[in-house]
Structure formats: C-alpha cells, structure tokens
Design a protein that fits this description.
With 173 residues, the chain is an alpha+beta fold. It has a single domain (45-168), classed as Roll (10 Kd Chaperonin, Protein Cpn10, Chain O), CATH 2.30.33.40. The protein is 12% helix and 28% strand. It contains 3 helices and 11 strands; from the N terminus they run E-E-E-H-E-E-H-E-H-E-E-E-E-E. The strands form 3 sheets. Strands 9-10-6-7-8-11 form a 6-stranded antiparallel sheet, with no helix packed on it. Strands 1-2-3 form a 3-stranded antiparallel sheet, with no helix packed on it. A hairpin with a 2-residue loop joins strand 2 and strand 3 (23-24). It is globular and about 50 Å long. The model is unreliable at 7-22 (pLDDT under 50).
Length: 173
C-alpha cells in the first residue's frame, strides 16, 4: 500500500493533485467542450471576485442574448452572496445556490417597455431604472437559468426599494 499526500495549495481552485511515492499524478484537464464555451462570454464572467459583480463586465453581446422583458416586467440578476464565511471557511456550492434562490437583492439588467408607465399606479414615476441594485420579495418573480447563472423576471410593482450596495443587506435565514 502506498502512502498518499494531498496537496491543498490549490484548494481555492478546487483542483487537487494527489502525490504518491511514485510521483505526482497527472493534472486534471477540463473537457474539450468547456474550452469552446469560454469563447462566448457568460454571466459568470461578470463576477470579478466572488461575490462582487462588476456591471461593466456584462458586455453588450451578453445583454443582447438575454431575454427582453415584455410589458411591465424587469430582468433582474440576483445577487450571489459570499462564497465563504467571515472566518474564511468556504461554503459548499449547494449552500451558495440556496442563498441565491432565496436572495432578496438583485441588479436591474433590463426594463420592459411598459414598466412604470401607469400614472395611476406610479404617480411619482419609476421606482427603479436599469443598472440599479434593488430589493424584492424573497421568492418573487420567475427564475430561470442562462449561460453562467440565474436571472429573474419580476413585475414592476414587486420592487421594494433601491439600494447602493448589496453587501449592506443581511439576509435572515
């Protein structure tokens, strides 16, 4: 039986190499299909460092490929939240995904043509605009997956408030 050592220096990248007495193992190579996907920009590329979204990284071609909200609807990119605790412990991807599903904060990507146009319902004007961080009800809107992440379509009256920084809002579990 050979003794094995696990090199954890690559733990943040989730690529582990097992070193045995006979020498290091082969590095893990991504499948060829993943290399082809990297040519096309995805929503995941907009996150410069988890969980920070850099809205300028959402290229025009990526926005053009996203669905256009119809009527009084808004296209929202939910905030992903932190990938590790304040103590530095990395959270499992299932936990991060569960937090994203139940998030109450998002970034307005697109606004439908009839959003906030009803003067009786919105006498003071629009509650939010494109490129703003907003709060909404926990499970509001229709959720769906696109290349690189999840987006939601919400009605214009489901926006609760606008905020400056999503890190300011602490989610209750």
């Amino acid at each position: 039986m050979t003794k094995s050592k696990i090199d954890l220096s690559a733990a943040p990248n989730a690529a582990f190499q097992i070193k045995t007495e006979s020498g290091p193992s082969e590095p893990i190579k991504p499948p060829a299909t993943e290399e082809k996907k990297s040519d096309k920009p995805s929503l995941a590329d907009a996150y410069t460092e988890k969980p920070r979204l850099n809205p300028e990284m959402i290229g025009k071609s990526l926005l053009d490929r996203m669905p256009n909200p119809t009527g009084w609807r808004l296209l929202i990119l939910p905030y992903q939240g932190k990938g590790k605790t304040a103590g530095g412990i990395f959270l499992p991807s299932d936990t991060v995904e569960k937090n994203q599903v139940s998030t109450q904060v998002g970034y307005v990507l697109k606004v439908g043509p009839l959003a906030y146009k009803d003067p009786e319902k919105f006498p003071s004007g629009a509650w939010c605009a494109e490129k703003q961080w907003v709060m909404f009800a926990r499970y509001a809107g229709s959720r769906f997956q696109i290349d690189g992440g999840e987006v939601r379509i919400l009605n214009d009256d489901e926006i609760l408030s606008t905020i400056l920084d999503p890190e300011d809002i602490h989610q209750l579990t």
